[in-house]
Design brief:
It contains six helices and five strands; from the N terminus they run ααβαββαββαα. The protein is an alpha+beta fold. The chain folds into two domains: 34 residues; 106 residues, 2-Layer Sandwich (Alpha-Beta Plaits), CATH 3.30.70. A three-stranded antiparallel β-sheet has the order 2-3-5, with no helix packed on it. It is rod-shaped. Bound molecules: iron/sulfur cluster (SF4) (2 copies). One iron/sulfur cluster binds next to α4.
């Protein structure tokens, strides 16, 4: 007796099946077509109407803004070996060695007229340690130390990030980076 009541209860809650009329059939087709068309229109808008957000690197290269803090360059010819950059560096990754110039040596100046009283023997930055904070460039009195917009300087070893700014190959960057 209880099983009969259960069956009766289930059959009474089953939803009524909707009958498909010709009108509904056409409406379903129209809904299918119109939603597909709407999707294609959005796709078309992105293909033809929106500026691409990616570039075909390396064939195409972005130019970084001039004030980017990317690879450091010291134009050693205009460095007065004042150590201010090394003192300001929070990670101590700037290594400088300099000695006082002979008193009878030729008097030389930087391009902004600052006398150069020390001979620079070593100017190295371990850019693997550098956090690109920019403090060293901010304090440089002759503005010979700058961040460049160079961003392609990947290396296979950490040692490759240690730049000796007195080395001829790095001094060559000057022709590209420094506007006299
Ligand atoms: S930018 Fe690099 S080298 Fe210059 S102060 Fe900051 S951490 Fe030191
Ligand atoms: S602050 Fe500038 S001038 Fe002084 S040692 Fe550093 S790079 Fe040279």
């Amino acid at each position: 007796m209880s099983a009969e009541i259960e069956i009766h209860h289930l059959s009474s809650t089953r939803p009524q099946e909707e009958s498909l009329t010709l009108g509904k059939w056409f409406r379903n087709i129209w809904t299918g077509l119109s939603t597909a068309l709407k999707g294609m229109m959005i796709t078309g808008k992105y293909i033809y109407g929106v500026k691409p957000v990616t570039i075909e690197y390396p064939e195409v290269r972005e130019q970084l803004p001039a004030n980017s803090r990317s690879r450091l360059f010291n134009d050693a010819e205009n460095c007065i070996s004042c150590y201010q950059c090394a003192t300001a560096c929070p990670v101590d990754c700037i290594y400088i060695t300099a000695t006082r110039r002979d008193s009878d040596a030729e008097k030389i100046k930087t391009k902004d007229g600052t006398p150069i009283r020390l001979d620079l023997h070593q100017y190295t930055i371990d850019t693997a340690l550098c956090c690109y904070c920019g403090l060293c460039t901010t304090v440089c009195p002759t503005e010979c130390l700058t961040h460049t917009t160079d961003y392609e300087f990947a290396q296979y070893t950490l040692g490759g990030f240690k730049y000796d700014y007195l080395a001829p190959d790095i001094r060559e960057w000057r022709t590209r980076l420094v506007k006299d």
